[in-house]
């Protein structure tokens, strides 16, 4: 089997799209075992990655489990969504601010997410699969707030070579629920996770090179499953403002989009550019060059996910919707909403979109895996 890495991007509720892509991959490839030797997950991608690593001997089973979880998810499985719980959260933040203790740093209580992870992911089975060399490395990316550094928690085979970069290091661990919680701690909304007395948040924060871990693992190919439609050039003259002012939610949604997704696009572009340079080298120079070409395939939504989310705005729990209204989310681009909308009416169409997009690219997918 070729040495292929899978990178699962972040994006909150957009992670449902990845379940659809993986379902189509299972159909196209028609293989029993997991077709990846290395899996990297960041934010919600880390949860999807862990479920794949748990089922290395049965790729269709892993896909079926992911699809079922995303089809049946709702906000109450991720954070306390009742009016009472949200009221308590708002009161806690206001009280901490008024008595000069500073804000608590998050809006939503994600205790249900911790329970969800404990219930649905078998970390002992992941460890057994890695010990049996059924997968070489499961990388979960997080951000250490104290160190202001990206940390790749790597549960890997003994032969795996760990690495250090000034702003990004790999750290050998036996993965546990708190690593997934740390990687998924959406800034401002979800609480940071405490690991060894240090606080960790969403792995996308400050992640300059998302594919670094896969590249360091010396893989031959990297399959990327993103969560945003490809950017297209838009002339300034064609843009029309839909509001007199831009609300905080619109700005925050744009920031989260940038944090989660823009560096991934740049990293893929860099890898492809290095591949082009490598092709131009003479045979002698190729033998001595430090860069080995790495094939990439980037599967991403063909439709604007933010617009899809905006059409389901009324599915958000009432008090959370009120808070989002205060931030100006109603009628905005839907970017912020798409990260928080853990509801079936949103996730089911995303699964279907992921499946249809990937089936439409089946020739490209087959060529990627067979070449």
What's the SSE blueprint?
Layout: E1 4-8, H1 16-29, E2 38-42, H2 44-54, H3 59-71, H4 83-98, H5 111-120, H6 123-131, E3 137-144, E4 149-156, E5 164-165, E6 168-172, H7 177-183, E7 193-195, E8 198-202, H8 212-216, E9 221-225, H9 248-280, H10 283-288, E10 295-299, H11 305-310, H12 318-326, H13 335-340, H14 344-360, H15 362-370
Parallel strand pairs: 1-2, 1-9, 2-3, 4-6, 9-10
Antiparallel strand pairs: 3-4, 3-8, 5-6, 7-8
Helix pairs in contact: 1-3, 1-14, 2-3, 5-7
Features of the shown structure:
46% helix, 371 residues, globular
How would you explain this protein's 3D organization?
There is one protein chain. Strands 1, 2, 3, 4, 5, 6, 7, 8, 9 and 10 form a ten-stranded mixed sheet that branches. The relative contact order is 0.18. The mean pLDDT is 86. The protein is globular and about 60 Å long. The longest helix has 33 residues, at 248-280. It has a single domain (4-73, 106-233, 243-303, 344-370), classed as Cytosolic phospholipase A2 catalytic domain (3-Layer(aba) Sandwich). Helix 1 (16-29) links the parallel strand 1 (4-8) and strand 2. Helix 1 (16-29) runs antiparallel to helix 3. The chain is built from 15 helices and ten strands. The protein is α/β, with parallel strands linked by helices.
Poorly predicted residue ranges: none
Please, how many domains?
1
Order of helices and strands: EHEHHHHHEEEEHEEHEHHEHHHHH
The CATH topology comes to Cytosolic phospholipase A2 catalytic domain
Note the main sheet.
10 strands, mixed
Mean pLDDT: 86
The assembly state of the depicted protein chains is single chain
CATH architectural group? 3-Layer(aba) Sandwich
- The count of strands amounts to 10
Bin the strand percentage. Answer: 5-15%
Number of helices: 15
Q: What helical percentage do the residues reach?
A: 40-55%
Q: What is the CATH C-level name? A: Alpha Beta
Radius of gyration: 21 Å
The span between the termini is 11 Å
Structural class: alpha/beta
Q: What is the overall shape?
A: globular
